[in-house]
Prior knowledge:
Elements: E1 11-13, H1 26-42, E2 45-48, H2 51-69, E3 93-97, E4 102-107, H3 126-147, E5 173-179, E6 192-194, E7 200-202, E8 209-210, E9 215-220, E10 225-228, E11 234-236, E12 245-250, H4 252-257, E13 266-269, E14 281-288, E15 295-296, H5 299-303, E16 316-317, H6 318-323, H7 328-332, H8 370-391, H9 400-406, H10 415-421, H11 437-447, H12 471-484
Parallel strand pairs: 1-2
Antiparallel strand pairs: 2-12, 3-4, 4-5, 5-14, 6-7, 8-13, 9-12, 9-14, 10-11, 10-13, 15-16
Helix pairs in contact: 1-3, 2-3, 8-11, 11-12
Amino acid sequence: MAGNGLPSLGRVKLADLVPSEGLPSDSYKISVSTLSQSLAQYSAVVIQFSTSDGALLRSGLDSARLYFHQRASYPANDMIHTNETREWCKTSGYYADPQLWQETYDYRPGLTPIEQNTLELPPAGLPDIFSLLGRAARDILDAISFYLNLRSSPFSEVLDNVPLRNREISSSVLSVCCHARPSFQGAQHPNLINQDDGQSVMFSDNDQQIDKSLITLMKSDKAGLQVRDFQGRWVLVDGDLGPQEAVVFPGLALYQATAGYINPALLKTDISNMQANMYGRCSLAFRLMPKSMTSLSCSEMRAAGHGVEAQFQLPVPVDDFMQRTHPTDQLLNRHSLQSFNFPTAQDGSMKPLVRRKKNSSKCKPLPPSKRLRLEAQRVLKERVQDIADKRGIKLRFCTLKECETHIHSLDSPCASIRMEIGWPPGVPFVHPHDLPNKAKVGFLKAYEPGWTATNDTELSLTEPGQIHQHSADCNFKAETMHNLVPSK
């Protein structure tokens, strides 16, 4: 909501996110709220480790710099790979991508040997760093699940065993990366972009990237990681990291498993001014990945009462999901939960806001029309979002039942947004999935020029006796919102 967002990237202590038995502590609830709101606004959050754990991460970065610095300037042919030529769950050891000026050493338990028989020593401390970041990623994932009102550890079925069983290979991976090492394959880079002011900005890829992980934790020795925020701006997320801090961002697998409620982070890495540094930009990136032989399902989201759109209804095999291309333009136009906060209830407790199915005998929903529902939802959200974007307002869609009580409250969660957007008094600020079909028809007629009921063949499912139910109220809502939205 406007005015209640975080002024900058959220910072959370990892110790406050560790779950415990019994009722959640106030520090846990506050940390979960900060974590979730930062993910909603910036698609990233900063996690603060303990002093000893921070020292382990820094020593890992020191070892990474020495490891890549001692390597040859041009890798052997069998070590040159791109993302398209590598199997996502079988990467291990050193490989390089000269096109991106990037070198990587992947540590994957069960596949990467701990004891090397060659004279070349790998970066030090990888098993300990893998264990540290793996525990942190699972705690963060459980904190997100707590906010979404899911059961404890809802993703355990798609995660690796802890510890791994005999002959198991880890799906999660710890990547030690080095960008733009000056001694690596010459000085010219294909992604060097000259700005109008004469300065050069270098990115690791011309287009934004999306991790296909559930959760990714990254610790770098130099700033450069940029993430696209809720308003479409690129934000530098590791510019002021402390010695005990790392950046966390959600991936595409979590987006799929939460039915689109948690948007994946769109990333790019600025590697300008690396020529003056003899080591380049080194980073540690732990990716918590689902197992390849499982499926990503939204059953937990449905069980918690969240709406699940058609594209997330069927389980998706993980292996197919990881090998499939995912257009980023569709993800850019989606919005995650608009308000990540814990309002105070009448009894003083803090409860998460979740969208639940409502059963109202006063206004019984008509038989559903899938195409009508999705079309009305798309149109309504686009039109109202246009108003909010022009006025710099962060939207939150309440359920109809919530708004019935909010209308009579001066300090309700959606009172300020109704005032800012000019919402008519007495009209619920409602998400289309809570409305009966007749109201959805009204929204489409108001918003979509030329749309008529004949556009949807499924309207024949509507019961004749319910066609005129609350028609005056629905027409009033549609006409009022039509006047509210600027003509295009």
